[in-house]
Amino acid sequence: MRHGKYRFIIGFLAIPLALYGTLVISPFVQDFQISLTDWTGLTPDKHYIGFDNYRKIIHDHLFWQSLWHNVLLLLIVPIVTLAFGLFFAFMLNVGGRRKGSASVAGVRGSGFYKIVFFFPQVLSVTVIAILWQQIYNPDPEEGVLNVILKDVGLGSLTQSWLGDPKLALACIMAVMVWANVGFYVVLFSAGMSSIPTEIYEAALLDGAKRFTTFFKVTLPLLSDTVATGWVYMGIIAMDAFAFVQLMSVNNGGPNEKTDVVPLLLYKTAFRDNSQYGLAAAMGVAMLVVTLLFAVLTLRLSRRERIEF
Question: Which of 33, 73, 213, 282 could form an SS bridge with 265, CB 3.0 to 4.6 Å?
Fold first, then answer.
């Protein structure tokens, strides 16, 4: 009976595991193999060169600068996005005035606000990037942001937003937050709606205010959801390829001040003499960094599960 049970389980898992190995694991293995060669990607000729490509990226200043930009995105974008998501979700579900016998309620019009916050999710990254390019347009007559600043008497604050090395990366970060915060408003709202109202009622009877209720009740009960969101946003921040390529000046400019590793990988493979082997080594490095981030995040967020 036991052997028959295992054969039954293996029979169901064999095909999914085979597909996963072929479509997910195999490309990673092939990427590592390519990283050990000098393949250009344009001819079938390639020669094994060991870890020379890894030595090149270790001594490549542009690679480390791009990786630092990824780290900045990793530190800032998830924190700001999740913080806004939690705040708006709390206000839309718990932060309003109580109505009648309801112990907790969201602000008036919360259903409409959820739709508004979620709207960027239905737009593609390309549409969002082009939209914000026009908002950041430095032309004082066409750039939406500069026109607004000028009209309200703050003309001295107008900038070449994406052309200023000190502001360009921060502007792209702001767009990434705007594009993703709506998803987490809806995600956290779903999590908060599953928390029994009796818990909030007990907190109110104890005299807890909104601030205390959020940090002592809501946030601990959403810890698993927040940890998952952190990993997901971290992976988005580690990529950031589409936003930087579409919005930055000359693909990573000005002066490579917005360059990120995925974009550098793309340019190395398809523009800079087609160095596929070197680009593959950058891909392996990104894989290692992303896995370390995911493991550390899940490890640090591990805690005793709260049942309710």
Answer: 282
